[in-house]
Design a protein that fits this description.
Oligomer: single chain
Largest sheet: 7 strands, parallel
Shape: elongated
Number of helices: 9
Strand content: 15-25%
Number of strands: 12
Strand order of the largest sheet: 8-7-6-9-10-11-12
Order of helices and strands: EHEEHEEHHEHEEHEHEHEEH
Helix content: 25-40%
Structural class: alpha/beta
Radius of gyration: 21 Å
């Protein structure tokens, strides 16, 4: 196979492990870190690249985004012929499943309350809850969402799933489309958001939607911070309709020190770490997809700019 060029442009990412892996996977390729004025490349591996990158690389055949979300990438002016390919798993699905499951279980079993009591030197006991009273709704049933829903089923929670179009998953009660969104919310006590961020899903977790969750509802957001209207979540917690939240993503990251989320004891915060990109797994997926594209074969994970994912 003829020689080709791969350029790596990933903001705030240590390039050396990626370069080593890409060079080992593509011995016939020249792999370099992009710098302004760099030579033209055939393929790009990117995360949060600047507009200048695409302005200087108008000939790219394909762009591989090393995260699952492509919302920031699609805001840029991209070469019209370039295929944008997102990673569908790359080791993230199992991480997301374990993160969400621990969040649901900690809330269901009152483990945060036990932690607080132990620190205060109190030996306490909370009445066990019934799983039947804790239906979990997974919003977004892509590769990550489907894995999360399946994992929750193993713990015997009632699991609801909502997606843009119908997606049957064994053991999961399915809802789809705008017409069934309110019914999905009303059927759920814990809400897990795994939607892609698009113009249609911006601010989707607002007062109207969150207030439709069952009383004592709990929110887990592991998708994008811009899905959630922060002040609406806080208002519903203050009113008592929601019991709290586990948040891994925020509108501004790092979360500003003055943000009220830091001071709300019923909100647990983590620094966008629910599912991290694994270099080895990612490179294996990129290699498979890039070779298929070079051979004219179809690949999964191609982004539809019209849908935004």
């Amino acid at each position: 196979m003829s020689t080709f060029q791969i350029t790596f442009c990933c903001t705030n990412t240590e390039p050396d492990p990626w370069l080593a892996g890409l060079r080992a996977s593509f011995p016939q390729a020249e792999v370099t870190v992009w710098q302004p004025g760099a030579a033209l490349a055939d393929y790009a591996v990117v995360w949060a690249p600047p507009q200048q990158f695409f302005d200087e690389q108008p000939q790219l055949q394909a762009v591989f985004n090393i995260g699952a979300g492509v919302d920031a990438l699609l805001k840029l002016r991209l070469p019209p012929q370039a295929v944008v390919v997102r990673l569908e798993d790359a080791g993230m699905a199992v991480q997301m499943a374990e993160y969400v499951c621990q969040g649901v279980i900690r809330h269901f079993r009152d483990l945060n309350a036990y932690d607080n009591d132990a620190r205060a030197g109190h030996w306490t006991y909370y009445k066990p809850r019934q799983r039947s009273e804790f239906p979990v709704g997974v919003m977004g049933l892509g590769v990550l969402g489907e894995r999360v829903a399946q994992a929750l089923c193993h713990f015997e929670f009632p699991v609801n799933g909502w997606s843009r179009s119908p997606k049957p998953i064994p053991g999961v009660r399915g809802f789809s489309g705008a017409a069934q969104l309110n019914d999905f919310l009303a059927s759920s006590r814990v809400l897990v958001n795994l939607l892609p961020l698009t113009p249609d899903t911006l601010n989707i977790l607002n007062h109207d939607r969150l207030s439709r969750l069952q009383a004592g509802g709990y929110v887990i957001n592991v998708a994008r911070g811009a899905h959630l209207v922060d002040e609406d979540l806080l208002a519903l917690i203050e009113s008592g309709h929601l019991s709290g939240a586990l948040l891994d993503v925020f509108r501004t990251e790092p979360l500003p020190t003055e943000h009220p989320f830091w001071r709300e004891p019923s909100i647990t915060l983590t620094p966008h770490t629910s599912a991290r990109t694994l270099v080895t797994d990612s490179i294996a997926q990129i290699m498979q997809k890039m070779l298929a594209l070079r051979q004219g074969q179809p690949v999964t994970g191609v982004v539809d700019p019209g849908r935004g994912y």
